[in-house]
Specification:
Helix content: under 10%
Shape: elongated
Number of strands: 7
Structural class: mainly beta
Strand order of the largest sheet: 5-4-7
Largest sheet: 3 strands, antiparallel
Length: 91
């Protein structure tokens, strides 16, 4: 198996995002992350993310094995941590 030391790279920087919510208590958002790798095909890479609802330091939802965090969220400030790893990479 060929391996290199260059981790997959997100195609956009991690930064604060603001989503408009038109609901009184919650709103639907669309949030999908993308990444590339210099030598590993997409089907050999795994996405995951976890969510800290209300950004209070507790990971309330984890792990979700996809690059799509779209969904219905309560109004407020939340934190998402994304991971993109090689399938052969130890956890």
């Amino acid at each position: 198996m060929f391996q290199n030391n260059n981790a997959p790279e997100f195609t956009e920087n991690c930064q604060n995002r603001t989503f408009c919510s038109y609901g009184e208590c919650e709103g639907q958002i669309e949030y999908i992350k993308y990444a590339t790798d210099d030598c590993t095909p997409d089907n050999e890479l795994q996405w995951s993310y976890k969510i800290d609802l209300d950004n209070d330091g507790n990971w309330d939802i984890e792990p979700i094995l996809t690059n799509n965090a779209s969904g219905l969220y309560a109004n407020g400030t939340h934190r998402i941590a994304w991971t993109r790893r090689w399938l052969w990479q130890p956890k």
